[in-house]
Amino acid sequence: MHVVELRAEHVREPIGLGTARPRLSWRVESEVAGETQVAYELIIGGAGTGRVESVEQVLVDWPAAPLRPREEREVAVRVWTGRSEAVSAPIRVEAGLLGQALQATLINGQPITTDDGPATLFRREFELPAEPVRARLYATAHGVYELELNGERVGDHVLAPGWTSYHHRLRYQTFDVTNELHKGPNAIGAWLAEGWYAGRLGFRGGRRGVYGDRPALAVQLEVACADGSRHVIASGGDWRSAPGPITATGLYDGERYDARLERDGWSRPGFDDRDWAPVTERPLDSARLVAPDGPPVRRTEILRPVSSRTTGDGRTIVDFGQNLTGRLRITTVGERGTTVVLRHAEVLQDGELYTRPLREAQARDEYTRRGGGPETWEPRFTVHGFRYAEITGETERVEAVVCHTDMTRTGWFTCDDPLLNRLHDNVVWSMRGNFLDVPTDCPQRDERLGWTGDLAVFAATAAYLYDCAGLLTSWLADLAAEQEELGTVPFYVPWVELLGPPRPAAVWGDAAVDAPWTLFERFADTGILRQQYRSMRAWVEQVAALAGERRRWDEGFQFGDWLDPAAPPERPADARTDPYLVATAAHVRSARLLAAIAGQLGETADQTRYAAHAAAVAEAFNAEYVTPSGRLASDAQTAYALALTGGLLAKQEQRERAGRRLVELVAAEGHRIGTGFAGTPLICDALTLAGADDDAYHLLLQRECPSWLYPVTMDATTIWERWDSLLPDGTVNPGEMTSFNHYALGAVADWLHRTVAGLAPAAPGYRRVLVRPRPGGGLGRAEAVHDSPYGRITVGWRRAGGRLHVTVALPPGVTARVELPGADQPAEAGPGVHEYTCDFRTPADDPPPVRAAHPFHTPEEE
Fold first, then answer.
1. Which candidate in 125, 346, 721, 783 is catalytic?
2. pLDDT of 114
3. C-alpha closest to that of 843 among 719, 652, 694
4. Is the pLDDT of residue 855 over 60?
5. 721 catalytic, yes or no?
6. What 3-state class would DSSP assign to 794?
7. Which end of the chain is more exposed for a tag (fewer CB within 10 A), N or C?
8. pTM exceeding the 0.85 threshold for the entire prediction
């Protein structure tokens, strides 16, 4: 038995933690089937807690005295099972500022103009009287920054400190720089650009200076030396600044770099900075500083082109074979002063970059050579969404650098259908491209905003694929802060006013409840429920007030079933399902979830109240939108999917009739998709609930437009915003909103994990799982693998000779209920590997029957 992966909170690098009592998690590994933890002891700073009889091992409360600001302690855990005991390798956890103010002030960069501004360089030299034994660098910015010490880059973060709602929360980073310093003269340098703080944000021209009129940097270096001396080097009036080689940089339009303007040795001691200007400064509000809740944005992968061609006028168009988020790294050749121009796009049309979907984002980088030998360059402060790039100028090498929040991959799915595997890969790549510090809608055009509706429908899929708990914890804190100030949950977080003040909208606003619940369900994080409880209550109460005594939310703006495939390109909200039906159904769900959350938190009065409210709204939904026989007022796929999966139909006969009608609608559409944002995550589950697995598979595996696999047949490598972002003739949809990297419609992957492969959570953190594979669609095998908080869970099945063979592997601490097709009773499974078989035949295995009736059909209907 081994104890592995001891960690604090949701971070991999527990330095600069934002809590004095970090929760601890660990995993137990054993070769002995059935072995599981029965007790533990936490050893903190050399002192043990004593044996604690408990099976808890995920986000266990800190048992020792709270950490003081900047304090570091060693932590280990001893675990007992019924057979043995083991001790983990120790980790060191270190508190961040914990509310203590910094001495640093904000030093100003260039004021914003109507164009993307240049990056500013800052520097300061200092002397250390002895070798450093401990050094920490704390940094943040109104904008985006990179730091250097003695000529070397500090850290590997991209676009630090990231994007938060700056007037509420300003994130800072902590770096251990002990090994980067030495006795004697040292120098610190910094690059600063506008980023999200002062640069252009949003569509229809966007806005500049949303948070302030100029970027600024705050840095504080704290050094303890071997002679016992302590030193603080903080940003302030004694720093110097100068323009650098980045002459313009923006998140949407790209970066211009003139290597002739480079200043050799500028971040090393001894550099002559007499022609540099003194900085201006302004106060830093330390009360807004927050430590990171999750990992930073990093470079995570390098891709080489899969093909390239040269045009008649000398341009090179390269295809990286994958739509991605990041930037190019080029090695150039040529004379001094020659410029290489890089342009980016997601698609080609008529063999050229097709940039209309970028709208007003230029996505153009320029590098002007210094001269001499080959020069390698990569932009610092921009990212683009692209598969194709056009290069004008001479290059020896070009690579795509993939950038996104450096989350740990936790979920996989495979089967024997290559198109379905590609669909799942596309979902993964869309999540990678859009989880860039905040969960954005798309990475390429002039938008890239944290749309709440996209995250609400995709959260369960995201939490399976990656450990996104830290990123979403931070984003939800901003959501709550914006909600409190604005009076409602805005359409996107952080909020940028572009089309007037925010208005409450179903599904989008319901992210305030859906997302924390998903983090609790998938990561066993009760803390996020407590953190967001006030926000969740405020949202449900606001909608309850809008619904009034009628208990129906049937007034005001709604997105409804956004991007229903029947909606015209210019009117994406024109769906077949009544938007107020969607809104009222969403309100029932949020009220029910809030009641369950209140129960988890011991808020029993709220639990009773919100459960009763949800029941009353469900009754009102029935009265307004459902006939006694189970037909819905909106005779559309999304309406029935919401009613069936939401438990909104009071009577069994209504549920049966609704199930039959949903099957009829899906069949009438030729098993092509008929749902938008609200219905797509639910449609396959609704068909499964109706006993129509075959129809669900037929819908899933449909290749004609609109369908999930149509884009795959059109060479998509990410999920599209529209079902027909690329038309069958190879031209781009004429709608203004036509992204080729938009994860929301990929929410079907959650059904692949839970139903096709059969791996679903049945208790928070997957401590208990439901194994219920439902093979179909002619698939011969499928497998889901998930690295849960307790360890790796695998569920796989294969069909052979009219038998279904199922393998279940569970880590210590996890149990499963196993429900095989046709089995009279479920089986129970504990830690270890288990094999099951059962008879399993599908219509494809047998001669076609003379007549096939749906299980809900009555003789009269036949």
1. 721
2. 84
3. 694
4. no
5. yes
6. strand
7. C
8. yes
CB atoms within 10 A of CB 731: 12
Confidence check: pLDDT of 858 > 80: no
Catalytic: which of 447, 482, 603, 656? 447
Those residues with Cβ within 8 angstroms of residue 672's Cβ, 6 or more apart along the chain or in another chain:
565, 699, 702, 704, 705, 706, 707
Rg of the chain over all Cα atoms, to the nearest angstrom: 28
Instruction: Give dist(CA 745, CA 743) in Å, integer.
Output: 6
Residue pLDDT, tens place only, 156-210: 999 999 999 999 999 999 999 999 999 999 999 999 999 999 999 999 999 999 9
**Residue 420: both structure tokens together:** 């379905």
Average pLDDT of the residues of the chain? 95
555 labelled catalytic: no
Q: Is the dihedral of CA 12, 166, 743, 754 positive or negative?
A: positive
> 686-729: per-residue pLDDT in tens?
999 999 999 999 999 999 999 999 999 999 999 999 999 999 99
Q: What percent of the chain has pLDDT over 70?
A: 98
Before 374, cis peptide (omega within 30)? no
Strands, sheet with 277-278, edge to edge from the N-terminal-most edge strand? 152-154, 144-149, 184-193, 120-128, 240-243, 277-278
In the chain the domains, ranked by start, together with CATH numbers, are 2-94 (2.60.40.10), 106-294 (2.60.120.260), 298-405 (2.60.120.260), 411-757 (1.50.10.10), 769-845 (2.60.420.10)
**3-state secondary structure string across 709-750:** HHHHHCCCCCCCCCCCCECCCCCECCCCCCCCCCHHHHHHHH
3-state class (DSSP) for residue 608: helix
